[in-house]
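ESCALATION

Customer reports they have been waiting on this structure for their group meeting. Please prioritize. Original submission:
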Amino acid sequence: MHLLGEREDLPELTASLDLVVSSSAFGEGFPNVVGEAMACAVPIVATDIGDTAWVVGDTGRLVPPCDPVALAKACIETLNLSIEQRTQQGQSARQRIKDHFSLTSVLTQFNTLLTNQVS
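Update from on-call: job pushed to the front of the queue and completed.
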């Protein structure tokens, strides 16, 4: 572990990671750190809390909360993938963020919702 202090290059730093792990036990709405890592094409291992499953979809690994053995196993399995497989998983995650959670996508979804309202 390295304590890096205040940083202004978080997108570059996040994109350099091999894996992002979210081990929340409760209380997640939209897990920003998961979405940010996915946007940087980093593979995800996360606990199935709140909206995490919805955000990750089938692009990462989800495990039950409060199960450190399952979390560790999923991390090891992900890190044991080939570089090409991890890259593909990260690219799939990035595409999911772009398709479902980018500003353009969200505005389109809101527009569709608002224009299809029944009076």
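Sent to customer with the following note: The chain has a mean pLDDT of 94.
Escalation resolved.
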